[in-house]
Write a structure and sequence with these properties.
Distance between the termini of chain B: 27 Å
Strand content of chain B: 15-25%
Number of strands of chain A: 18
Helix content of chain A: 25-40%
Strand order of the largest sheet of chain B: 4-3-2-1-5-6-7
Radius of gyration of chain A: 20 Å
Structural class of chain A: alpha/beta
Oligomer: heterodimer
Number of helices of chain B: 8
Number of helices of chain A: 13
Order of helices and strands of chain B: EHHHEHEHEHEEEHH
Distance between the termini of chain A: 54 Å
C-alpha cells in the first residue's frame, strides 16, 4: 500500500521506510514554535524536565503576537517571562515587537519552514505551513516543552481525505472562500484526526497566499494537517524567503484516502460562515440583509499582501459606512512596509479605516477590536465561536477580505461584485 | 483507579473559547483559570462544580485553539473525567499530556443525562451510571498513551526515558 504525502514526510522523520494510518511514531522535528499565550505554560513545563538547553537553538521559534504590544500588566508579565527564557536559552528565532508579526505569516516569510519539514507549534493554526509542502500541526504547551527538550514528538500517523481542486476561481473569490466552502461541506469535525491533502490541476491557479489561507483553516475542519504539493510557485516562494534545503515529497499513486472530493474552483462563490461555527456557511447570494458594527481584515488567515491589496482596492476613494468600525491589521512588519510603499495604507486610512500594527488581538477577543453585547462583525479571521471576539452575545461572520471590505462600505454583509 | 461524580452535560463542538475565553488567557494560573471555566456556555459551572464531577459532551469536544489552558481549567475546577463521543485532536493530546482523564464513549454520552451520578473505573474502561443503573464500555487507550498516563503526563514520561 502506498503512502500519502503526509505519511511519507512522517516516515522520513521517524527513520522508517514506511508508515501506515494509525501507527504511533516518534518523529524528529525541524521547528518547534510557540506564542505569548502558550509559551509561558511550556516554559514552566520545560523547567520541570531538568535540562538547561533546548535541543537546537536554531530550531525553536518564539513569537509574542497574541496580546502584543502588551495589552495589560498580566500580558506584559507573560511576555517578560518568555523573553527572559528566550535570551537565557539563546533562542535564535525570538521575534520582539518591532520585528515580529503574526506567527503564521511571519515564520514562512522568515524562511524558517520549507517543503518536507516536520513542524509543531503551540498554536492551532500551525497547520498553515502545509501550503509549503511541509507537515505542520498544532499541539499544546506540554508538547512544545517536550519538543524543545528532545527535538522529537509522538504522532499517530493520520489517514487522509483528498481534495482534487479543478479550474480557476472567478473574480472576488479567493482561498478563503475555497476553505469556507470545504468546511461547510464536511463540517467542523469532517477531517477529525486526518490529513487534508489538496491536489489537482486547479492548484496551479492558486497563489501562495491562497494556499496559506486554505491550509491555515484545515484545523477548522478538525484536521491534523492540510498539505499542498510542491510546484513552481512553492519553489519560487522558498527561494525568495529561505536558504534552508527543501525536500519534495509526493503522494504515491496507490496511496489510500478515506474519501476523495472534487472541487470545481470556478463554481465557488464568495462564502460567509454564520455564527457560531465555521461550518455554518452560505454563499453571498444567500446571505440576506445583515447589518454589521465592525469589520476586521487581517490575521494569520488573511493578513498577507494579496489580502490587503484586495481590501484597499475596494476601499480606495470610498468611505467606510457611518457607524461601522473597520480595523485592518497586516500579518508582519514586512507586509506593513510593503503596504505603505504600494500606497495601500493611505487608501485604507483615507477610507476611514484604522491600520494597526501586526497582532492577533482582535481575532481572539484579546484587544484592538472587542465586540460589545449584541454587536456583529464581519471578519477575515478563522473562528466565530460564542464569545470569540468579545461579549458572549456578540456575533462574528467569517468571510474573505473582498467581502469584508465591501461590507465595511455599506454597513451590511455585501457582495464585492455589487461595489462599483 | 476509580472516580465518581455528578454529571454536567453539553452538546456538540464545545470549543476551547467557551471552555476558557481568551480574555482570561493573560494568566496561566490554574486556579484563576478555573474561576472562568465554561463561563460563556454555562455561567453557573464554576460555582456549582464539585471535586470529582464529570463532564459529558457529544462530538468534537475541545475544538478550536491549542490552548492547554482549556484542559488545565477543567482539571483545576475539580473535574475528574471528561467523556465525549469524540474529542478534537489537540485537546485530546493536551489532556493526556497534563493528566486530565478523558474517555471516548458514544454509548455513555447517549445514556447519561445532566445530574446523573456516574462512576468510572479507568483500569477497565467501565462507566457506571448509578442513577440509571446502566454500564457502558469506553475505548481503551493505545498502550503508548497508557504509558504517558501512568507516568502522570508527558514531561514525567520523557524524564523517565532520559
Amino acid at each position: 500500500m502506498g503512502m500519502t504525502m503526509t505519511q511519507k514526510i512522517l516516515a522520513a522523520h521517524a527513520g522508517l521506510d514506511s508508515v501506515k494510518a494509525g501507527q504511533l511514531i516518534e518523529a524528529n522535528l525541524d521547528l518547534v514554535l510557540g506564542n505569548d499565550i502558550t509559551t509561558p505554560v511550556a516554559v514552566k513545563e520545560f523547567q520541570k524536565v531538568g535540562i538547561d538547553k533546548v535541543f537546537d537553538k536554531s530550531k525553536v521559534a518564539i513569537v509574542p503576537d497574541h496580546f502584543t504590544p502588551n495589552k495589560d500588566i498580566k500580558a506584559a508579565e507573560q511576555c517578560k517571562f518568555i523573553r527572559e527564557f528566550a535570551y537565557d536559552k539563546e533562542i535564535e528565532n525570538y521575534f520582539e515587537v518591532g520585528e515580529m508579526g503574526i506567527e503564521h505569516a511571519l515564520i514562512p516569510e522568515k524562511g524558517l519552514v520549507v517543503a518536507g519539514d516536520v513542524v509543531i507549534g503551540a498554536d492551532s493554526h500551525t497547520c498553515t505551513y502545509g501550503a509549503l509542502g511541509a507537515f505542520s500541526t498544532g499541539i499544546g504547551s506540554t508538547d512544545m516543552a517536550a519538543g524543545m527538550a528532545t527535538g522529537k514528538a509522538w504522532f499517530k500517523v493520520p489517514s487522509a481525505l483528498k481534495f482534487v481542486l479543478k479550474g480557476k476561481m472567478s473574480k472576488w473569490v479567493s482561498g478563503k472562500d475555497v476553505i469556507l466552502h470545504i468546511i461547510g461541506m464536511i463540517g467542523v469535525d469532517g477531517a477529525l484526526y486526518k490529513s487534508m491533502e489538496f491536489t489537482g490541476d486547479g492548484i496551479a491557479n492558486l497563489t501562495m497566499d491562497d494556499r496559506f489561507t486554505i491550509a491555515n483553516m484545515a484545523i477548522e475542519a478538525g484536521a491534523k494537517n492540510g498539505i499542498f504539493p510542491v510546484d513552481e510557485k512553492t519553489i519560487a516562494y522558498m527561494k525568495e524567503h529561505s536558504t534552508k534545503e527543501y525536500k519534495v515529497y509526493e503522494a504515491d499513486e496507490d496511496a489510500e484516502y478515506e474519501k476523495v472530493y472534487e472541487i470545481d474552483l470556478s463554481k465557488i462563490r464568495p462564502t460567509v460562515a454564520f455564527p457560531h461555527l465555521p461550518e455554518n456557511t452560505c454563499t453571498i447570494d444567500e446571505v440576506g440583509d445583515i447589518k454589521i458594527d465592525q469589520v476586521v481584515i487581517g490575521s494569520c488567515t488573511n493578513g498577507r499582501m494579496e489580502d490587503l491589496r484586495v481590501a484597499a482596492k475596494i476601499l480606495k476613494g470610498k468611505k467606510v459606512a457611518k457607524g461601522v468600525r473597520c480595523i485592518v491589521f497586516p500579518g508582519t512588519q514586512k507586509i506593513y512596509l510593503q503596504a505603505l510603499e504600494e500606497g495601500l495604507v493611505a487608501d485604507i486610512v483615507k477610507a476611514g479605516a484604522v491600520f494597526s500594527t501586526p497582532t492577533c488581538g482582535p481575532c481572539l477577543g484579546g484587544h484592538m477590536g472587542i465586540l460589545a453585547k449584541g454587536e456583529r462583525a464581519v471578519s477575515t479571521t478563522n473562528r466565530n465561536f460564542v464569545g470569540r471576539m468579545g461579549h458572549p452575545e456578540s456575533e462574528v461572520y467569517l468571510a474573505s477580505p473582498a467581502v469584508a471590505a465591501a461590507s465595511a462600505l455599506t454597513g451590511k454583509i455585501t457582495n464585492p461584485e455589487d461595489i462599483q | 483507579m476509580k472516580v465518581q461524580g455528578r454529571v454536567f452535560k453539553y452538546g456538540d463542538n464545545v470549543d476551547t473559547d467557551v471552555i476558557i475565553p481568551a480574555r482570561y488567557l493573560n494568566t496561566s494560573d490554574p486556579q484563576e483559570l478555573a474561576k472562568h471555566c465554561m463561563e460563556d456556555i454555562d455561567a453557573e459551572f464554576a460555582n456549582k462544580v464539585q471535586k470529582g464531577d464529570i463532564i459529558v459532551a457529544d462530538k468534537n469536544f475541545g475544538c478550536g485553539s491549542s490552548r492547554e489552558h482549556a484542559p488545565i481549567a477543567i482539571k483545576a475546577s475539580g473535574v475528574s473525567c471528561v467523556i465525549a463521543s469524540t474529542f478534537a485532536r489537540i485537546f485530546y493530546r493536551n489532556s493526556i499530556n497534563i493528566g486530565l482523564p478523558i474517555l471516548e464513549c458514544e454509548e455513555a454520552v447517549k445514556g447519561i443525562d445532566a445530574g446523573d451520578e456516574v462512576e468510572i473505573d479507568f483500569s477497565t474502561g467501565t462507566i457506571t451510571n448509578k442513577t440509571k443503573n446502566e454500564t457502558y464500555k469506553a475505548q481503551p487507550f493505545p498502550e503508548f498513551m497508557q504509558k504517558i498516563i501512568a507516568s502522570d503526563g508527558l514531561i514525567k514520561y520523557i524524564q523517565q526515558k532520559a
